Amino acid sequence: MNFNKELFAFVKTAPAKFALIIAASILASGAVIGQAHILSKIINSVFLFHAALNNVQSLLILFLIVSASRAILLWLSQYFASGLVRHLKKYFREQIIIQIEKIGPLTLKSERTGELTNTLFTGVDKLEDYFSKFLPHVFLSLFIPIIILIFIFPVDLLTAAIFVVTAPIIPLFMYLIGSIAERMNKKQWESLSRMSAYFFDVLLGLSTLKLFNKTNETVEKIFDVTNHFRIKTMRVLRVAFLSALVLEIAATISVAVIAVSVGLRLLAGNFDFSNALFILIIAPDFYLPLRQLGASYHAGMEGVSAFERINQILKFEMPLRADVHEQKIFHLENSQPIIFNNVSFTYPGREIKALDNISLTILPQKVTALVGATGAGKSSLMNMLLRFINADEGNILIGSENFYEQTEEAWRSKISWLPQNPHIFNTSILENIRISNYKATIKEVINAAGKAQVHDFISSLPQKYDSTIGEYGNKLSGGEIQRIALARAYLRNSPFLFIDEPTANLDPIIEEEILSCMYNLFKGKTVLIIAHRLNTIMRADEIIVMKEGRIVETGTHEKLIKRSGYYNELLTAQRKSA
Amino acid sequence: MKTFLKIVSLGKDYKLWMLFAVLLGFITVGSGIGLMMTSSYLIAKAAIQTPIYQLQVAIVGVRFFGIARGVFRYLERYISHKITFKLLAKFRVWFYKSLIPLVPSKTIDYSSGDLLTRSIEDIESLEHIFVRVISPPFILVLTCGFMFVLLNQFSITYALIFLAIFLSSAIGIPILTYLLSSKLGKKIIVLRTELKNIAIDGMYGLSELIIYQEIKNWKQKFIDKQNELLKAEYKMNLIKGLHESLTGLAMNLTVAALLFVSIPDVTRGLLDGVYLAVITIGIMASYEIVFQIPLAFQYLSKSIEAGSRLLEITEQKAEITNNLVHGDVNFDGYDLKVHNVSFSYDGKAETLENISFEVKENQILAIVGASGAGKSTLVNILTRLWSYNKGEISIGGISYSQLSSEKIREIISVVPQKTHLFAGTIKENLLIANENASDEEMYNVLEQVDLKNMILNLPEKLNTHIGEFGKKLSGGEIKRLAIARSLLRNTPILIFDEATSHLDNLTEGLILSTIKRNSHGKRIIFITHRLTRMDMFDQILVFQNGRIVERGSSFYLTENGKYYPKLIRAQTQTLEAI
């Protein structure tokens, strides 16, 4: 059964709404019983007692009033269900959004972004039917048959007995056949995902197929793969549909049995026609909740599996460092060095240490360059200073204070960051620059853009600073994106500056311009830069050379060159390749 | 609606199957009506002490309909699902075929994984189009006609009253709710897209948001927008909730109206009182199908949404209309000549301006330049994936305008920037290039890219499965396999589009030597932004902003070029991945 206690627990955040859904539905069923009773009375008196229209007129009006109340009650249950859904969707989406910050940009690489968006929207939507249909149906399939039985018992014991016997048979058979089908279905699932994967593969590789003149052969293969899947699936469905057959047959056959048995007793003259008609009218409604449950069973299953994904996100927790007792705000400017003492870090799920026993000092108001091959640990070190990851071992100090004891907020208000691939938000250029300093005036923004040499470009746009940048910065060139990011850093004007030098293969002339704008930003700041260019490296007051998570050399360019160590190796390897 | 018809017309081959399924569906509903009517007939007759032998027919009828309903329901579901799968195959092939001439366009390129994923979901959402959308209205019409004929046996008044209320509830209620909600529906779609964009934008720019402490504003923006969406969805649910209530009310109104006109007939002796119950219960049973109509409307609008998204893709104008060339073309060699070719496209793709060059037999040509200089555009034009606006391209003296795309691709092989390997074995991936290749030939090309030993060491050798997109191979192995695949085709012209840019220096050198060794009898174009072993090329074309700014040998360009030395310098000044 896909009831899932953990998911059901969320009903407790709005118990009144859920109770009202059930109550309104039960009252609506009560109305159905009332209708059946009135109808059988009307027909009985006209048919057997020759009543005229004006004798039964008031009953007919009563019938319409009860019908109208039933319609209103049904709508009310929808009303409460909509309210519950609104409440829960709001709750789940907001929780996921809150979690996204905790998950952090490192775990949330681009491939997971798609998955997360899917969970946030389609996943949460799938909970809608779980709460508004499946869950109420679970309760109603229990309550409504019992209520109907209460009314049938005093009327006819035999009918009540047939109801009592058949009612449990339906879920039982549905369960039995359902579980067989499910087992078959699991195997089927594999071939389904293989079929979808094949189609996706072919679509993505369409250009390749085209270049090899192989597009026509593939059409036949798509047909083959889908047909193969169909034949296999129909085998499963043959069994799965049996549950529908059992449900249908149990319901219709018991109606037939009841009709015949009641008919025979009427013949014998020991049964009341009005009661017989009442039983016949109400019989389909006895089975209705079970059928509805059957119909929403699939929605329930989907809801639970969607919830499993959502729950994974909700349960994500970033471990705290043990040595932090109390977080406070440091009133620091950049007159103090940043000191790493024996810091190590391993990414979760990996064996090799990304940072292995790192000790270093980043001098205040100087430029420190990080150099090394891909995977040497440069980015991990920077991510640690950006507080995207926390050191597993060792400690970091700013002057004499524990780096981790200051609040993230306080630390981040002191830093700027220039990544390799800056993100341009889907808003105006003004907002995009101002993201680094919300209080900045337009004049200050223009000033920063000027320093990043992007003001002229922006002014050339028809709407200038109010121009919206197309989705994900489509309309900007790589150089323009870099410059906008640089303008952000100028506007921020923070004492600490962290840079991952861009390596995008830009036009060398443009690249030089951007770099010279960047160097002007360095004055008076504590700068840590992951450097790729000789020019940048040579500007640094201190170079830290990394290899396989360790620091292998430190010093100035001149000093390191003379040493003919790993640094020298890196430089010569690069020259040789060209 | 046009969209819907276009989609539905794809399934016209299965008309007869559909008709059959609709008939089965009608018989199922009809059996339900039959069961209830014969049952009520039975008890009514029994109530007036009809001799039992006169009731035999009714008793048999009750039993027959009781069983028939379940059996026909089963058959109907089975057949309709069969149709569903056949339709699915049709939709897939249709989408694939429509995409062939469009790929790679400027809107659907190699990287459009997201777009394709959504399309696949859209196609899958169309699978219910028959069961939920097409079939119910037809069943409804048949049921309505059946009841009309039946009631007409008693009186045309009954039949007309039934027809009026039945049809107006089946059509009127969905139309009413549609009118109430059409504005809301559009608003929901817009709000959903906006909310999704906020979410995605924030996830991609999460680092910036966190570091610049803008995350709170982003969350608030999301929460505010979501509240708007939830409010609209809530209203929508309330409107949708009207369906069930109003349909139930309509059913009871029909019952009341018919009782109102038939009771006086009973009193006047125009109608046998037995039929009072039969008519009432029959009408209630016939409403079963009306309850399905609102759902059909909902699925209809969903199908239209999905369909129009798909049509938006498939109905784009193809870049290329293929030339139909009959008969053999007599090439005078395969030298490639590009003369004054220009290309522009409304801002989305790189432009080209007056490109002229020639590649003769045994020549190796390099094309270099920064990203965005137009190198990839040139490849797409040379392979006839895009067409050029001006100028002339010819192979062996024959103009592109006289060659079919297939013919061109028989002569030119490309190793593209982003390689697509298909899920399957190594062998299958190689055979795409040349279906007649022997194992020996395959090993031969694999050796040239230094993959032979690796593959010989695999337990299943060439028959090793490489997983989706070749994910069981490393990035370098994927690239090398793609190069091997193109070498296997052994075409007179070979283009390498950034084929080695993600390989390490050693492998890159190896592949360049392979290319050099295999250049005999071929014309090779090597496109790259990384200037490695430039001395190997007969000629180098230097691209900048869509134009050839310099050309010549590496030696000549180093001495006499202006831009080329800058490219070289920018590279030697950069420490890339070692």
Question: Quick summary of this structure?
Answer:
The complex is a heterodimer of chains A (578) and B (578). Chain A has 578 residues and is α/β, with parallel strands linked by helices. Chain A has helices at residues 5-8, 15-47, 53-107, 110-155, 157-204, 206-211, 215-267, 273-314, 378-385, 408-412, 429-434, 442-451, 455-460, 478-492, 508-521, 534-539, 557-563, 566-577; strands at residues 338-345, 355-362, 367-371, 393-398, 401-402, 415-418, 496-500, 526-530, 542-547, 550-555.
Written overview of the protein:
The complex is a heterodimer of chains A (about 575) and B (about 575). Chain A is α/β, with parallel strands linked by helices and about 575 residues long. Chain A has helices at about 5-10, 15-45, 55-105, 110-155, 155-205, 205-210, 215-265, 275-315, 380-385, 410, 430-435, 440-450, 455-460, 480-490, 510-520, 535-540, 555-565, 565-575; strands spanning about 340-345, 355-360, 365-370, 395-400, 400, 415-420, 495-500, 525-530, 540-545, 550-555. Chain A is built from 18 helices and 10 strands. In chain A, strand 9 and strand 10 (about 550-555) form a beta hairpin. In chain A, helix 4 runs antiparallel to helix 8 and helix 12 (about 440-450) packs across helix 14. The radius of gyration of chain A is 36 Å and the shape is elongated. Chain B has helices at about 1-10, 15-45, 55-100, 115-125, 130-150, 155-205, 205-210, 215-240, 240-265, 275-285, 295-315, 375-380, 405-410, 425-430, 440-450, 450-455, 475-490, 505-515, 555-560, 565-570; strands at about 335-345, 350-360, 365-370, 390-395, 400, 410-415, 495, 525-530, 540-545, 545-550. In chain B, strand 9 (about 540-545) and strand 10 form a beta hairpin. The radius of gyration of chain B is 35 Å and the shape is elongated. The longest helix of chain B is centred in the N-terminal third of the chain and has 49 residues, at about 155-205. The interface between A and B is large, with 153 and 155 residues.
